[in-house]
Amino acid sequence: MSVLGGVSARPDFDTEAPTVPVHIGIIMDGNGRWAEARGLPRVAGHRKGVDALRRTVRHAAKLGVRHLTVFSFSSENWSRPAQEVASLMGLLRRFIEQDLRELDQNNIRVRPIGRRDNLSKEINELLTHAEETTRANTGMTLLVAFNYGGRDEIARACRIVAERVAAGEIAADAVDETLIASYLDTAGIPDPDLIIRTSGESRLSNFLMWQAAYAEFVFVPELWPDFDEAALEAALSEFRNRNRRFGGVVAGVTGG
Ligand code: FPP
Q: Cα(145) to centroid of ligand 1, in Å?
């Protein structure tokens, strides 16, 4: 029985952290600092960041993680210099062109999340291509948060729900957490158990705002390009030591 009773985002779960989280979210931070520390342009850090992403995807899949969400481009990243924005678009294109085959061969399903209507036709087509090519895969889901912001995602979901209520398709009193979650980009994906942020920063920065309600947070000092298999294992080890209570009480311990 769930300690949350009727709350549906996590219907039934154990307060014991599983050995391997079902869903991990990663805020891949520190590419710019990695490059600046070496006197390199920021894009060199993003390039190394793609290598770290590749390593992490391979290792997470090997460990049996079911869903991995990576924050690749935030809705706020448009405010960066145009050249850096163009580089990040180019890196996404190259990542899909170069890595989709390997992802597909490893039974990994790619699922883009984020706003699509203000992306170029080319990027939209690539994201759709990656999603469609891997749709039938049954291994790990790689959720690529691109042009993603948690508040934007919630607002887009609410807009659709409001339109359906106005059209008489949904009763206003049927609007609950389960219904809103079903209109989020992550519909059907369990909430993240663990969110990792690299580079020593301790913020959520608009990542999986709704879904992170009961996630464990692990903030690690490594800059993203330096994140490797050992760093992932260390974060998982910290996760295993957490006592997840989901707002309930466990063994006489109170708190959220
Ligand atoms: C944060 O580092 C990272 C990003 C804004 C983008 C993350 C992108 C990648 C890991 C590579 C691209 C991958 C794909 C699939 C597009 P930062 O630039 O904010 O670093 P800083 O805080 O040190 O400046």
A: 12
Residue, of 96 and 2, whose pLDDT is higher: 96
Predicted confidence band of residue 10 (pLDDT cuts 50, 70, 90): very low
Cα 137 to the center of its chain, rounded Å: 19
> Which is the closest atom of ligand 1 to the Cα of 46?
11
Cα 153 → chain centroid = 13
Report the pLDDT value the prediction gives residue 256, as an integer from 0 to 100. Answer: 52
CATH number, domain with residue 78 = 3.40.1180.10
Q: Output the pTM of the full model.
A: 0.91
**How far is it, in rounded angstroms, from Cα 233 to Cα 72?**
21
Mutate to test the pocket of ligand 1, among 26, 31, 148 (most ligand atoms within 8 A of CB): 31
- Total structural domains in the chain? 1
Gap between the Cα atoms of 37 and 22, Å rounded? 35
Given the CA of residue 96, which atom of ligand 1 is nearest to it? 15
| Catalytic residue status for 29 | yes
Residue 1: inside a domain, yes or no?
no
Residues 6+ apart with CB under 8 A from 39: none
Q: How far is CA 133 from CA 58, 97, 108, in A?
A: 18, 12, 10
Task: Compute the distance from residue 42 Cα to the ligand 1 centre, in Å.
Answer: 9
77: annotated active-site residue: yes
pLDDT at 118 exceeding the cut of 80? yes
Reported as a single tens digit per residue, the pLDDT across 22-53 is 999 999 999 999 999 999 999 999 999 999 99
Could you tell which of 29, 57, 71, 144 is best to mutate to test the pocket of ligand 1, judged by most ligand atoms within 8 Å of the CB? Answer: 29
Is 133 within the bounds of a domain?
yes
pLDDT digits (tens, 9 = 90+) for 221-238: 999 999 999 999 999 999
Domain holding 128, by residue range, is 23-149+191-240
